[in-house]
Amino acid sequence: MNPNYFKDAPIKELSNKKLPTLGFLYLDYVLRFFDHSNFKGWPNKIETVTYHWKNDKECFIKEVKRKKIDVLVGNIPATAYETFREIALALPNVRFIPDLDTQFSNKSKENVTRFAWKYDLPIPKTYIFYNEKKSDEFLKKCDYPKIIKKSYGPSNYGGYFVHKVDSYQEAKTLLDEKQYNPQYIQDFVPMEADIRVMLIGHKPVCAFWRRPTDGGWLTNTSQGGSMDYMDVPKSVLDLAVKVSKAANAEYWAVDVAYGKDGVPRILECATAFAAFPYIRDWIAEYIMWDLSKGRFKKPHIPMFNWEELSKMDSSILRTMRHITFGKYSPSSDGDCYGAKHKYFGENEVYLHLLDQEYKIKRLTLRTKEEWPSEKWNYQDNLTQVKNKKSKLIVSSDEDTEIVETQESISKKDLKKLLKSVSGIGEKKIKKIFDTFENKENVIDVLDTNPHILTQIKGITTKTVKRLEAIWQIFKMQ
Predict the structure, then answer these.
(1) Read out DSSP for 158-222?
(2) How far apart are CA 374 and CA 167, in angstroms?
(3) What are the residue ranges spanned by the domains of the chain?
(4) Which end of the chain, N or C, is more open, meaning fewer C-beta atoms within 10 Å of its C-beta?
(5) Are both 106-270 and 408-477 of the same fold?
(6) Span 408-477: which CATH code?
(7) pTM
(8) Which tens digit of pLDDT belongs to each residue from 211-253?
(9) Is the pLDDT of residue 7 over 50?
């Protein structure tokens, strides 16, 4: 993406001719998040481009270029994510909303976890295996209960691919039946409920509790859980804002586990989520405001609007469109009677003042890829070589535990081994560690897909073959 495209700057509102050409990004067999009715008042034609799966990548790229689209709006499902990373690279002057780095978490629960690890966001302690033998060894020794989830696939599971296991035998039976790859395992966190928070421009615009049935642990409404919208804690809203900013998201949803210990932890986050039509209208208003440099008004969405709207029947909310709110303006009567307040965090506050604390903000566009697939597509990269050893990756918002699943080697000795390969010197070793960040990730690459190293400038296929041979000798010692 061109870093100067629609960069926030003090320029005049854009005329019809200067407005970017919008296109809706649609995919066959995938529900559409936006349509023309959401972008009420946009004066120019909005194009549509549909991806037809199979070998449609080049046709899609050509159609975007032919229609001279500047901005493509729409979510990418997990199964098309890697293809659209390639499409985005082939269209460097087209802005994707949300961009593909923001949609990184849409692809899998593993990606959500890696996103959370990078930005030090609280999540339940998580274990990821790409090796069944090592997974089995871990499950024999670990404490129970554990949660096992399907990592990759459609985003809206409704709880049907989330399992609680109370013993090794339950875990083994489940994984033998489901054949999940990777094996994605979390510590079970006793929780009061989970909370879904939706945000636009990093501002919470809707939030609700999902509570389990008596004696149950799943909070999904499809599994019998209940919903209510009242008194979502400040700690949860603040965490959701932090996560949205880390993702650099125009719009975003976060599922937060509110533990019985009072600690909020992230369960899921993505740009793909179910939302009432009026929320999609608000997102479109935000996008139009952003792209037009203020020609369209920034939407005003008061804090805790969801508490009042939730008093209406959901069947009405599903049909309501283009809801607007007036901003609070004090009057002689309003000063005494009209300013609603509530307890929020440690203080009693006026609701209209919270709109100053939680503002809708414009994004700063990225100037380079944050999650390039050659490094972060573990789903494909770590399954290319069957039965190879792979590291167990463990992280936590509590204690971090690293379990070694390959021969122990220090960072110093690993660098010495790399340097012994003809064609790899100090500068290339530095590039390797700068690219893959730590010793464990470098070992993962050597164990599973060393060809990835050719992405680093100066490392050739011949060099990688030499390195593979030396690495195999090392592992046999």
Answers:
(1) TTTTEEEE-SHHHHHHHHHHH--SSEEEEE---EEEEEEEEEETTEEEEEEEEEPPTT-----GG
(2) 37
(3) 106-270, 408-477
(4) C
(5) no
(6) 1.10.150
(7) 0.77
(8) 876 655 554 544 445 689 999 999 999 999 999 999 999 999 9
(9) no
